[in-house]
Amino acid sequence: MKPILLMICAALLLAACGGGRKMSPEELQHKLDSVKALEIKEKLALQGVNLEASDNPLKLFYDSLEIQSLPISYSEDYVNFLPAFKDVTPDIVSYMELVECKHPKAVALPESVGARLMIMAADETDGHYSLWLYSLDDDYVPVDKLCLYAVDDMDPEDINEFGEEQFVQYFSITSDYEIRLMDYTKKEYQARLDEVYHVDESRKFALASSREE
């Protein structure tokens, strides 16, 4: 089946480059995302996962999660203790393509924007978790993900300029699903990054505004 998917991708690229109406970059990306989603579903089918069946493991896992009420925002307690997060089973870890995680955890968000969203906590270092916001399609397959909080997201230039202990990553998700990511220094509240995202019609995280220092 993979050669067929490669042929589809090639046809899409040919359509984008010439012949008839040219595709916009957004249209081309949407088509490629659709092909990728089809490939993921075929891969799951080969693993014996019937996404349309009532025992779809992705659906069963998602339905078992606690619901995180909104709004939420960064706090040291939240990222350290992960309240209401549930352990992710090994089979789900493989579906979510989590790498080098020993004890990942997850929590769901209320469904009110036409997309199923959940926060996945990935223990990329012992005892410390990065947080990823996932959007899922109708079959509970991941469509897109956005890093809310990274355990190790600082390069040497940042450390030299700000000092490692002074740098804070901030995130918030409002009840209207406005997702804000900010990096700032503790002492002077000097922002290095300020981005706002929303969930678009394709269930991807679209950048609405950005400001960088």
Short description:
The chain has 213 residues and is an alpha+beta fold. Helices cover 31% and strands 31% of the residues.
Record keyword descriptors for this entry.
globular, 213 residues, five-stranded antiparallel β-sheet, 6 helices, single chain, 31% helix, 10 strands, alpha+beta
Tell me the total number of β-strands: 10
- Cα end-to-end separation: 47 Å
Tell me, briefly, the overall form.
Answer: globular
Major sheet details: 5 strands, antiparallel
Instruction: Tell me what portion of residues adopts beta-strand conformation.
Output: 25-35%
Unreliable parts: 154-160
* Spatial strand sequence of the major β-sheet: 1-7-8-9-10
Radius of gyration: 19 Å
Q: If you average the pLDDT, what whole number results?
A: 77
Order of helices and strands: HHHEHEHEEEEHEEEE
Treating each run of at least 4 consecutive H or I residues as one helix, how many helices?
A: 6
Helix proportion of residues, in percent?
25-40%
Class from helix and strand fractions:
alpha+beta
Secondary-structure topology with pairs:
Blueprint: H1 2-17, H2 25-46, H3 57-64, E1 72-73, H4 76-81, E2 86-87, H5 90-95, E3 105-108, E4 116-125, E5 128-136, E6 142-149, H6 156-162, E7 167-173, E8 179-185, E9 191-199, E10 205-212
Antiparallel strand pairs: 1-7, 2-3, 3-4, 4-5, 5-6, 7-8, 8-9, 9-10
Helix pairs in contact: 1-2
Description:
- This protein is an alpha+beta fold and 213 residues long.
- 31% of the residues lie in helices and 31% in strands.
- The protein has 6 helices and 10 strands, in the order αααβαβαββββαββββ.
- The strands form 2 sheets. It has a 5-stranded antiparallel beta sheet.
- Strand 3 and strand 4 (116-125) form a beta hairpin.
- Helix 1 runs antiparallel to helix 2.
- The longest helix has 22 residues, at 25-46.
